[in-house]
Sequence to fold (492 residues):
Amino acid sequence: MKRVTLLRILVILGAIGLLEGLIHAGIVPRFTIIPPSEMASALAAILASGKLKVDIAVTLTNVAVAIVASMAAGVTIGTVLQRAAALRRILDPLFATYYAIPMYAFYPLLIVVFGLGDVPQICIGFLLAVMAVIINTLNGLDRVPRVLLKAARMHRMSALRTALRIRLPYAAPYIFTGFKLAVAYSFIGVIGAEFITSSRGIGYEISFAYNNFDNRLMYGLILFVLALVLTVNMSLHAWEKRLMMRRQR
Amino acid sequence: MKARDTLILVAVVLVAWQLLYWAVGSIAFRSPAETVRSAAVLLADPRFMPHVRESMLAFAEAFAIAVLIGLSIGVTLGASRLASEVAEPILVALYSIPKVTLYPVILLVFGIGMPAKVAFGAIHGIVPISIFALNAIRNINPVYLRTGQVLRLSPWAAARKILIPAALPEIVTGIRAGFCLTLIGTLLGEMFGAQRGLGHLLMQAMTRHNMDSIMALTLLLVVFAATVNGLLLALDHRLHRRV
Fold:
């Protein structure tokens, strides 16, 4: 297992080194991509200057709102649907086609309805994320063993208490998978929407820098987004692994 | 049974849409009937079809490239235990990054126009297709492969009789995911760096506040995506049931 991790790091470092080398050798032109080392120094300069603090804060806040809203709505809807079999069967084709729908196609509509504030971006993040939470919540709740529910009935627990004490804790690892996806989709939705049209945020700054041929700023910010998303995802992955291990014990 | 549920769902969506229209009002929204009417007007407009053709062509090219590259990566890596363990987390990480931030890079490499759209659509599709293909190949029951060896099948016969039938259901699932994402990627590509295509029309309608066009285009895109996805899903179910 250790060897695999080492190899993986070597592969990633090799890819970065290759890109660096190709650019220094002049095979990839400098006005197309700047070397990774310069991206890092550009990012350091951006963070040190603090001029994009507001944009970064706006994007992170919007992503956080989208995550919290999709988690709350997704777990609630999943819990209700699991008890309403008829409704669930009717909605089943929607679940299967949901991610085929190009969500960004609704963005112009959302802008016209809500204006060019933060709401349309949050909506796109929420719409992308919520279905992953619903599907994983349903998946987890479906697996609750019968015997636990019978025990709950013997203790005369109310439906709400059973949900809070037995169903949801049992489904927690599956809901966590949904949470992980919700985080990734919220980032994708919010930053993508900012990129299309908005007045502020990291995605907006990237497209602004692109339009001004400011390659250093643009690649610095792209590196920031990639590093941020990868760090968040990898930490969640590590946390999930620890949770799973505790459960097995 | 299945068809009836779908019909009920469509009816529910239409009712919800109409209720939303009554709630939001006609300034920023259109009713289902009005949207269908403007979609019909759009489809009858001779200036509309070239945009559809442009988008479909870009999407078809992007999808073909995504399937080709995705399957090659997935099958190659999936054949080796070590390679798949090294590569899978990297692929999953690539899946989770907001690829839209990479669009300026694509534009700088390919310039504005068809190649950029195609490349951007393809990078959306390659990753999920390769992840599914990788797992499909890796998870083939080793007994099947050993049986092939015992029967002294040639590599070609082994691929045709064992590898492909065993891995196909998962691969089709991956291709379905790749189809949806490639479509999204191609449209996104058209939304910024394009002079033609449905994504471009959508952006144009947004800057002009042309609600009729926005709603009609959104409806057409959703119907197209849902229909093809439904067909792929049926194929998917059939393949999975056979195994």
In short: DSSP finds ten helices and no strands in chain A.
